[in-house]
Amino acid sequence: MDLGIRGKTALVCAASKGLGKACAMSLAREGVDVTIVARTAGPLEATAEEIRQATGVNVKAVAVDITSPEGRAAALEACPNPDILVNNAGGPPPGDFRDWEREHWIKAIDANMLTPIELIKATVDGMIERRFGRIINITSGAVKAPIDILGLSNGARAGLTGFVAGIARNTVRHNVTINGLLPGPFDTDRLQGTLAAVSKKTGRPLEEVRDERIATNPAGRFGYPEEFGEACAFLCGQHAGFITGQNILLDGGAFPGTL
């Protein structure tokens, strides 16, 4: 399927690896010029070159902390009028809520709620003016099924989800959609960190924790980042203009509900 977005521009956050990288690669394969952002220059530039070699599109790499005002300014200077915005940031660490102080909550909210809102604020009016825009917020399956040791992430991402539910109904008439992609257990560094935390907390071997987690998933495996990237690309395409304000769960069937 031709998604009809060749020649568009995209700003993809936290894209040096994992799900952000997969989204950038899938968009680039559709002919979208991408600006990718992450904190560490070396891995980011390596990813940029990998995408260039695989797709031939223009790729800019901006090594900044997107959760800071300075980082957002630098990213938007490199990609001032994106047609597509993929919000993504590393989640806060797992732990026990009894150990978290106010500064832990503020850091989580800044990264996983306020940073996406600031980027939406900076780009959505231009999208409305051009009569095309696609905004994807990568959040977490924990928005629907909270995970106890990820309380900081649960709270911040749920706040973003509630905010987006309001504005997504106002932008769609201008062909600007805003949706959430909620990853379940994808085989990324983030998942490995979570499994390691469970292993440490319970005193069980990491492989045992990993195998048990896989066994509980109806798909019998973890997700592949490439699958996530292709879902993102579709939602960014011309054919997805009637989908907005939705939170689409990619979890191999792990969530047991009907809605």
Q: Care to describe what's here?
A:
This is SDR family oxidoreductase. By secondary structure, the chain is α/β, with parallel strands linked by helices. The chain has two domains: 9-184 and 226-248, NAD(P)-binding Rossmann-like Domain (Rossmann fold, 3-Layer(aba) Sandwich), CATH 3.40.50.720; 187-222, no CATH class. The chain is 47% helix and 14% strand. It is built from eight helices and seven strands; from the N terminus they run E-H-E-H-E-H-E-H-E-H-E-H-H-H-E. The protein has helices at 18-29, 41-55, 69-78, 102-130, 151-171, 189-202, 206-216, 225-235; strands at 9-12, 33-38, 59-63, 84-87, 133-138, 176-183, 247-250. A seven-stranded parallel β-sheet has the order 3-2-1-4-5-6-7, with helices on both faces. Helix 2 links the parallel strand 2 and strand 3. Helix 1 (18-29) packs parallel to helix 2 and helix 6 packs across helix 7. It is globular and about 55 Å long.
Main features:
single chain, 259 residues, alpha/beta, Rossmann fold, seven-stranded parallel β-sheet
Count of structural domains: 2
Number of helices: 8
Q: Please state roughly what percent of the residues sit in beta strands, choosing from under 5%, 5-15%, 15-25%, 25-35%, 35-45% or over 45%.
A: 5-15%
User: CATH class of the largest domain, anyone?
Assistant: Alpha Beta
* N-to-C SSE string, H for helix and E for strand: EHEHEHEHEHEHHHE
pLDDT averaged residue by residue = 95
